[in-house]
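Observation: inputs received (chain + adenosine monophosphate).
Thought: call the complex predictor directly.
Action: predict_structure
Action Input:
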Amino acid sequence: MKVLVAVKRVVDASFRVRVKTDGSGVDLENVKMAMNPFCEIAVEEAVRLKEKCIATEIIAVSIGVAKSEDTLRAALAMGADRAVLVLTEQRIEPLGIAKLLKAIALEEGADLVLLGKQAIDDDANQTGQMLAGLLGWPQATFASKLEIADGVATITREVDGGLETVAAPLPVVVTVDLRLNQPRFASLPNIMKARAKPLRKAAAADFGIDLTPRLKVLATTEPPAREAGEILGSVSELVARLRDSKVL
Ligand code: AMP
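Observation:
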């Protein structure tokens, strides 16, 4: 079973981003970048499937600028076998990403495509769903457990107030949620080995796919600054204040 894992290079989750002065987006100059946390969970799950001898090959794919190679090397260090880097300097919306992933999934003959449930930069939560639609494959989103046996994927999904278990025949698209697993740290020897693993580069423009964005970003704004706290003299003063502000 071939597993394709989509990994996105995003701003490191611990980094506080700043909005550009003209409001056209966030400033990515000198910002620490890392693999999207949900994509790390997807890679970890693929590696576990390989360790259980269910997956035979793991191919990591990323679409983005040349530096996305670092993200792919991180996936290779975690245990992916090889990688595909689709190069572009252009901002591509989830539909464009899904179209490119479709082309690669078919080209590679993937039986399972694993994606993060969302990218923490654009918070779109769209790519996996669109990919499944374009491929005409079943999809299971927000997976918190994944089992594969006899050509059938059984997925437990986190839904409001509980869990839902669904099954679908392969090939299938699965987007992963936070509680699926705890991604491993790559060991130094594996980081070294990852440098020699195969990584194929292709230009997004060569796929002959319309990647024109359909949305225009009109404004990006910082969240409002938090108001300063206040130390009150007693509990009764606190209760009175909460009543006044209609919190109680
Ligand atoms: P989104 O729909 O943008 O929230 O992204 C959901 C998931 O789609 C991510 O966690 C990745 O698995 C995949 N994805 C999105 N953008 C890219 C990209 N540029 N390269 C590779 N995978 C991506």
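Thought: report the result.
Final Answer: The helical segments are 37-51, 68-78, 94-108, 127-135, 188-194, 235-244. The mean pLDDT is 95.
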